[in-house]
Amino acid sequence: MSLFLPNKSLVLASASPRRRQFLSDLGLQFTVVPAELDEIPMLGEMPAAFALRMAAEKAAAVARLRPESWVLGADTVVTLAGEIIGKPADAAHALEILRKLRGRTHEVITGVALNCVQERCAECVTETTQVTFADFSDAVLAAYVRTGEPLDKAGAYGIQAGGAFLVNALRGSCSNVIGLPLHRCIDLLLRHGVISPRP
Predict the structure, then answer these.
(1) Is residue 127 predicted with pLDDT exceeding 90?
(2) Residues noted as catalytic
(3) Is 30 within 8 Å of 62 (Cβ atoms)?
(4) What domains lie within the chain, and their CATH numbers?
(5) What does DSSP say about strands 83-85 and 10-12: parallel, antiparallel, or unpaired?
(6) Packing angle between helix 138-146 and helix 91-101, nearest 10 degrees?
(7) Residue (of 139, 146, 115, 120) closest to 52 by Cα position
(8) Is the dihedral of CA 70, 175, 150, 17 positive or negative?
(9) Is this structure's pTM higher than 0.90?
């Protein structure tokens, strides 16, 4: 039995299987309409501002197509010392990223936006989690890269899978690091009456 009852049409503006799984695990009813946007930071744009802007633009783009629906958009960035670290271009780049992150604390920032054209709603929030990596050798990092897991992930690791061993400490939302701060999303959906607790 699901935790929540659907009150309004919900759309997820993301193709991320991890985000879909999170919402499905909570029993939410939704459709998926991925937003197709160029995800390029503007000159001098800070990581949190970039994540917030991209989430808002994704939600708005899909909301224009589905004006009666409530559209949830999200964008997650990995940042170290103010630098946005995206997905690796190849295996060598993945190893370079992991070397940069090891033994240090980086931040994972997710922007979450809820948009409904018909109801004139456009609300955005961000969530930041601090992640500290253990200091593993190049050989260990290279072995992880050879699994192929880091190649399609920002920061070149997946905390929900094999990459969990890299993490020495985490401060904040774990689901945020995977790609969706669930407490923020559920709060938004409850406050706007998109869902309600099952009695």
Answers:
(1) yes
(2) 75
(3) no
(4) 4-197 (3.90.950.10)
(5) unpaired
(6) 140
(7) 115
(8) negative
(9) yes
